[in-house]
């Protein structure tokens, strides 16, 4: 086997298949088509004169030779990423693109006006958002900054906790009263069953009265606003919706933390530093919203069933 016959793009293909265990997964990672990945891996194996993966019904498993190539690819990737971060750290211009990994709830809730204000002050910086439930790998430059709820941020990242995140039950404002024990609910589907809020709903049997399930909290918010059922939401999302009203106080056992993170090699990059500083200040200034105090006055004016006192 002659590994020198491979270029970096070839190693990326092998590494993507090795990590995903399938051509479809590798295609998504590389942003190319399934047939392209299929052609590439076949050409790579022909060039090396050895099979790198065993094809099975449940996916692609690396052969011993494939494991060797994947190991080399991982080492190359780490070296290239480290070099890119080192080069980026020399950039003192507050200009360019900053990739921010966050959640759809933050993008649908408090972030838009903060982003607009940032852009007005920093027109040379383009913000590129990636919303998802998993933490992007900042070491591999999948993102430059992560803004996420987390109780245990990765040790290889640096940053700070900005606020506590409170959760509460919400009803449609058009709904005159609410009874969490008998009313219908809109709840997360099985893809979000790992969330603490999903377990909380299941433990109380609220999920058994579900009128709708969805794989995102923004969709649940919108369904609750239409009167389809009660909904459990972070207060920063529920309190900002004029169509929703709280049912009771925030639930202490569901509290989480909001973290702003980056890789140590990137924190001195001017454009990344600008994003970190401004997001930190703007979000800390809205701490009451995240910690459930922004809607406290309304919540105190209502009983736990949602009826005016």
TrEMBL record:
Q: Which Pfam families match?
A: HTH_1, LysR_substrate
Q: Does the entry feature the keyword Transcription regulation, yes or no? A: yes
Gene3D superfamilies (UniProt xref): 3.40.190.290, Winged helix-like DNA-binding domain superfamily/Winged helix DNA-binding domain
Keywords, comma-separated and alphabetical: DNA-binding, Transcription, Transcription regulation
User: Which SUPFAM superfamilies does this entry report, sorted A to Z?
Assistant: Periplasmic binding protein-like II, Winged helix' DNA-binding domain
Cell inner membrane in keyword set? no
Molecular function via GO: DNA binding; DNA-binding transcription factor activity
Q: Tell me which residues make up the HTH lysR-type domain.
A: 1-63
InterPro entries, from UniProt? LTTR, LysR_HTH_N, LysR_subst-bd, WH-like_DNA-bd_sf, WH_DNA-bd_sf
Tell me its family: Belongs to the LysR transcriptional regulatory family.
Protein's UniProt name: LysR family transcriptional regulator
Q: Which organism is it from?
A: Tahibacter soli
